[in-house]
Fold this sequence. Notes:
Elements: H1 21-25, H2 32-50, E1 52-53, H3 55-59, H4 61-70, E2 77-80, H5 87-95, H6 130-143, E3 150-155, H7 162-174, E4 178-184, H8 195-205, H9 207-220, H10 224-241, H11 245-249, E5 253-259, H12 263-273, E6 279-285, H13 293-297, E7 304-305, H14 322-336, E8 340-344, H15 354-359, E9 364-366, H16 371-383, E10 387-393, H17 394-397, H18 401-409, E11 416-420, H19 436-440, E12 447-449, H20 454-466, E13 471-474, E14 497-500, E15 505-509, H21 513-524, E16 527-530, E17 533-535, H22 539-548, E18 551-559, H23 564-574, E19 580-586, H24 596-602, H25 607-620
Amino acid sequence: MFHTIPTTRPETPLLDTIDTPNDIRKLDLNALDLLAEELRHFLIYTVGQTGGHFGAGLGVIELTIALHYCFETPNDHLVWDVGHQTYPHKILTGRRERMSSLRKRSGLAPFPSRDESEFDTFGVGHSSTSISAALGMALAKKAQNDPSRTVAVIGDGAMTAGMAFEALNHAGSCDADMLVILNDNAMSISENVGGLASYFARILSSRFYLNVREGGKKILSHVPSARAFARKTEEHMKGMVVPGTLFDELGLNYMGPIDGHDVKALVTALSNIRDQTGPQFLHVVTQKGRGYGPAESSPIGTHSLSKIEKNPKGQNEKLPSYSNIFGQWACAKADADNKLIAITPAMREGSDLVAFSERFPDRYFDVAIAEQHAVTLAAGFACQGMKPVVAIYSTFLQRGFDQLIHDVAIQDLNVLFAIDRAGLLEDGPTHSGVFDHSFLRCIPNLVVMAPSNEVELHAQLEFGYEHEGPACVRYPRGAVTGRAVELAAPIKMGEANTLREGRSIALLAFGSMVNVALEVADTFDATLVDMRFVKPIDEHLIQTMSQSHEMIVTIEENALQGGAGSAVNECLLAHGYRGLVLNLGIPDVFIQPESPALMRKASGLDAESIGEEIRHHLQKHGT
């Protein structure tokens, strides 16, 4: 077991011979344990060099090997949920020597990608999609008389989302030939692995049991009462030692739980299940972070790692993050107002609500991966006079869009949305929060704010909380600016804040782009405005700027289409502005993963690129 991240590549002679899963299938069963050991060592080393999701991959080393050993991938299809756990899969499917390119432009994607490999059968990033996708594949194969197999691998956390159960319900009703594997790394059920439960799992996945079960179905098919009795008897027998009755009731044949780190047992179970018809469900228990001491003892804290820095900064130099500012505000506000309720869909650590959950356990609700429920739960609280604050990432709020409209905005309820991870993220398109300006500003009754620094964040959270009606504050990931920022100017509904008076060019910047625009404003002697509000937009200021400036430039870390710049354009058009207009934001492509700074540069949102674009625009129009 490792207790520190190695800085030199470990010796992996067996792993080095594995270029495709065909090479795994040539190995003797007894060699798979050594392969698992080498793969685990290699994974710990590579993630230390690149950063990335860590604990989940360590937990499925043996399962990944067993799946590729037993199934004829890529002809058989593996569909991974979320994708946090797929680095071992990438290593075993021809991408071992490219792992150092993870999270770099033109490098490996941090999640499965259909564009990257034929072994990545479905692109993912958000949770709870695997069963639906695998079911669609299985039903398509059935229609095409394709005998290849389809397997969905889903974690216990992703099973909390309604979409997973919708897919399970459908799978049981249409008799698709597919296997769902529940990768369960919850500590609370570890006692089920061993003794009678392990014995029962072996029995349930044995060929003898499966053949008897299918044969019995055929014999009793003409005797409905006997068939029903046999089914109930089987369910009750299972229910005594395993939690499988629910899945059986949904129409899936439940097997397990089985030790997810016993590669031979996994191979035996998968080999027995592989050729069974109809929907199958295998429950596998694993340990997140397996093989790395700090990850085993703190699986949440090591969910994702930053790459090892050769010259790391001292801890005393570390600035707080925007999430930290939100967490501190939430605790202080809860002290002052006992109506404050904090809700998050499995984002406690990321949103920095750990301290809140400990200090105010009766007012803290982690609803797990259930974004839609989180939004409507907040609406219910608001109906009873409470003041819910929903801490959620921008990209995950997309899943609660319908509830945001129908359950919160239409009823004009007092719900504050603290929208974290706004802007470009190194995990790429699935996690970058670059659409919320666009999808939020089209909703009536909604107030949308974007702070430019830590002081503005605190002020806007306070304003949004006290506002009568729904309000959103969207802010980026990472450390605050650290600038010597004075107290925020008083916030009035829809009013921007002019930071610098200039001459012919006015820069209207939103949120994180204000600090970038500071440098640009000095270069062009331009007026700089911290717009503060995406909705309502400051129409009076925009009209004033249009009367005194020959060029208006909007800058936002959001999609250009329908974003804050579009709101400015609508206002300028309404007032007949005849000067130059330049909108800068995320172009109409999915920005591929690398460091956020390089992603912004690739989007033309660094100071140098903004300056070049302004000059080019002026030259093109002869100004």
